[in-house]
Amino acid sequence: MRAVVVGAGIVGLTSGLALRRAGIDVVVYERATEIRAAGTALGLWANAMAVFDDLGVGDRVRAIGKPGELYFHDAAGQRLETPEYGVADHELELVHRAKLNDLLADAVGRENIRLATGFESYTEHQDCVTVRFTDGSAETADVLVGADGAFSMVREQLVPGAAAQEHPGHHVWRALLPDPGPDLTGNRLILGGDRCRGGYLRTYDGGMYWLVNQFDTPALTGTLKQQALQRAAHLGEDGRSGLLFKLIDATPEEEILHNQIMIVPPLPHWASARVVLVGDAAHAMSPHITAGATLGIEDAALLARLLTPPADVPAALATYQGDRIPRYAHVAALSAAVEHAPTPADFAHHYAAFHHWMLDGQRMNDVVAQRR
Question: Within the chain, what is the greatest distance between any pair of CA atoms?
Fold first, then answer.
């Protein structure tokens, strides 16, 4: 069996690796001229790490990460407790996005990745799919996997009219300071006023990752640093003496990343007989639940398991779609509960509830594995 994966981001490369481990011949196509990752740091939950363990790269991923516990604080500095949920519902691995992409590219095999080759279109046949690329080349495969993100060109053909949409008023600013200095230590995530959230996390190599988000953002004014500092003012009573304010102020303007959050609306289908979507191409969502990459990694693992030869491709894709669409309908409901929580305490509660639900399947898998 042969598979073409479009997109060499984290989910695309994980798909390529999982399919190769399943015994499938895989080639990954990427429009960019190099393997790269937008953003700075990435939180991976236990279910994503379990996938990487199964794929034989878990220890290597941990080597570029740092384990941590994700709890929220209010603007006064008090931790928002969620006593009905355990420590495991707050534990994650914070990894460097670009280093994770490089690690996965090496695991897939650079010889199996075609850079500077964008997707153009596909034609399905009864027993295969022909994929055409922007350089004029074409590839025939048993299955095409669209892992090309929120602005997916594969999705544009598979589900016309399902373009990514703005999550109205939702913006994020973030950066990674590789050497924040000895006085800047600790981890803190804060739920403040004016629909703002943010904080900072120490990375595995001694750097500091900071971010600020805002729902219902008013019209933006000023530089990116000024915009971030305006939001940080809602995240603590100590104003300009606060650590988050210091981190933002110490960041060069050109190192600050800003994004209007984009989401993919619920899709009527994720697959046809020979074409399938994974990750953000199928379900780009708001990052306030810190789970998009983890859930996309789960997509890749399930798809590879279902396609393991001698699988019937159309039946495997139908099974995958039948599992994923109801799951993501529930993800959307839980995510909305977090977003529209009326107080910081409610936000923290619904956030923990989402991760408890997401990780519950992984806990059951662990129990089954221990009984074998």
Answer: 65
Domains and CATH numbers, the chain: 2-37+97-164+264-371 (3.50.50.60), 167-261 (3.30.9.30)
Looking at residue 368, its pLDDT comes to: 30
Q: Which pLDDT does position 361 carry in this prediction?
A: 65
Q: What is the pLDDT of residues 188-217, one digit of tens each?
A: 889 998 999 999 888 777 788 899 999 999
Strands 188-191 and 65-69: unpaired
Adjacency order of strands within the sheet including 138-141: 119-124, 129-133, 138-141
The one-letter amino acid at 320? Y
Residue 366 scores a pLDDT above 60:
no
Whether the predicted pLDDT of 354 surpasses 50: yes
Q: In sequence order, what are the beta bridge partners of 209?
A: 176, 201
CB 295 within 8 A of CB 286: no
Q: How far apart are CA 307 and CA 7, in angstroms?
A: 19
- Both tokens of 168, joined, read 């109205």
Q: What is the pTM of this model?
A: 0.91
Label residue 2 exposed, middle or buried (CB < 10 Å: 0-12, 13-18, 19+): middle
Are the CB atoms for 81 and 32 separated by under 8 Å? no
pLDDT (tens digit per residue) in 126-178: 999 999 999 999 999 999 999 999 999 999 999 999 999 999 999 999 998 88
Q: Please, are residues 42 and 294 in contact by the beta-carbon 8 Å criterion?
A: no
Helix (H, G, I), strand (E, B) or coil at 133: strand
